[in-house]
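Weekend entry, working from home. Most of the wet-lab plans are on hold until the incubator is repaired, so I used the time to fold the two sequences that have been sitting in the queue since the last round of cloning. Logging both here for the record. First:
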Amino acid sequence: MVFSGQFLKNSVAALLLVLPLISSAGSTEDSIHVQHDSAAVHAEAPAAHEAHEGHAAEPADEKSKINEHIAHHLQDSHEFVFFSDEQTGEHYGFPLPVILYDNGVKFFMSSAFNHGESVANVDGNYYKLFHNKIYKTDAAGDLKLDHHGHPTVAQAMDFSITKNVVALLFTALLMFVLFTGLAKTYKKGPNALPTGFARVLEPLVIYVRDEIARPNIGEEKYKKFMPYLLTVFFLIWTLNLLGLTPLGINVTGNIAVTVCLALFTFFITQFSANKEYWGHIFWMPGVPYVMRIVLAPIEVLGLFTKPFSLLIRLFANITAGHTVVMGLIAVIYVMKNQLTVGGSIGASMVLTLFISVIELLVAFLQAFIFTMLSSLFIGMAVQEHDHHHDHAHGHDDHHVEDPEIPVI
């Protein structure tokens, strides 16, 4: 394999230098222009309503704005809002398609909600956007909030093309284009060399094959699962990198996405498992019969704890990273009275650059861990188990009357 080390070094260096700076600029500007739409209001108690209406004290209001903005950044959205002007109330971005099922399919653009400030009238039905969820209401937009600030009206069945869905579709299209080009190179012959960006992808594909799939699944069966392992590795890694851009995309920090990825690993593992795997689950060989009865429910529980650990690990690490970055930027604006403009910008750049570089490592590390554990679980299900200890156990039982042979 011929690979340009200088090209890779230049690409990585450019990514490390440019991406954190772009993220810092976008996040800083976004933090100044906090949205004031009723869809993003945190109505946890009456005091929260007062804060939204401006009745709370100024320091508490500043903190609530920051908390609101961090929560808004981590959540999915029915529109792309790049930044908002707090003085004029203008929002700069573009709407996304809304698809609802309510006695039929309802299709309209999210601009009908006017950033959560208006009620959408669709074929005589009224819908209100609240906390990035769509509720069916009346013409006045009354959600009938309870004493906890939660709507008591029905929530519409939502199949909308949200911001996270757009990111997933873009990532899928990008991967299709890039890997189609790499596949065409291999069709030319075993000695054909990839060109262009495919030269960057090839060592990563070889890494997943030689360092993840082969050691964990085995030489005979790893090829069957390579398409899934490559897909999940590059999908998670690309989505993690998109989350570092100022677009405010947090796909892998969405619990629904991580649950879906973990379920794929779970079903592939269970449907690929051989009879020896199930035998070890329900009737563990090589242990006393009483212990087999005790171990069976524990092993069955382990079937579900493994994918659960996958989805929680990915979700928690990505969400924590985004929260830390946004929190450090927020510190600059909380302390803006104690810092000069230059000091504020400098501190913001340094802190965000430091955390963003770490986030670049975490983006790759989480994709690697998810793929590694997935291959490990699959390997445990498809590998052929050694029965040497089972036969040895049977021989021990046969010679139990011999006092010179210890029975373990």
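Second, folded right after the first finished:
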Amino acid sequence: MTFNRLIVLFALYATLSVGVAYAQIDLKDLRATPDTNIVDKAPAPVDQLNNIIVPIPNLDLEVDYWKHWTKFGINANQAAFSGNWNAGGVNSVAAGLLGWHKSEYNKNNFQFTTEIDLKYGIVRNEGQLAKKNNDRIFWDNKLAYKLSKSWALYFSLTFESQFDVGYKYKFDDELGRELVSDTISNFMAPGYFTESFGLEYKPDETFSVRFGTGTARQTLLINRERLGPEPDYGVEPGKEFKNDLAFQLTANLDRNLSKNLNIKSRYNLFADYNDIGDPDHRLDVTLTTKITNLVNVSLGGIVVYNSDEAPEVQYSQALALGMTYTLPR
């Protein structure tokens, strides 16, 4: 009985071993062989690649070497009092027009700048004649060649005059009103042309100083017979032209002190080589604050010393509320 069981177990073991062997053979046959052709495939030759041409549009770009700035506006002042105003006062009205333009050309080391400044204003007080409170034509042209970052050789041509007639006034007691007593100035009476050559120091775009070692200025009194005897502006009696050779120093400042506050000033010294100890001086200063993009308040002052016009210092001052339009915006 025991022997027979052993034979049966042996036969069963042999049968299972053979079955497992056949099963392993069948599973090996089902395995997929990896495809190695991807690795072994030769790369495509470069000459078979297609070139793609991307079209580039013609932008037609040009370099603009010019810059332009323009301002024009109107200023006004007015005061009115009732007939029983005990504190005293005079009804008055004043209005002024202004225009300013600047163009600048920069290319390599060359620079050309032209600037024109025009102002005209009238004030009328009750019981008096209308009078000018501002009258100026100023046109400056400068050609410069840079020697370094801050220094340049320059040549400039400047024209200065006024639009309207300037009078002296007197009060006539018999008539009880104000009258014109004399004519003291007019358009091109005087008129100044100034040519200057020298060195310019310009450390930044807001400040510059010109040293004009070779400067000539022509003073013109056109239609001199229409003027009174004084002032003669240094021109000899009977003549309408005078030429001076001089040293000139000109300083310009145009700087924003804050976002809405700007100061602009110009100082000019003109020292005639024939009388270098008595130079002419002129200082123009304007302080402008912006209230809105159009409305501003300006405080301006002018100080002049020219012994050919007057033996003492001349000055004027004006405070105005106005509207100014600026380009570019």
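Plan for Monday: verify the second prediction. The longest strand covers residues 241-258.
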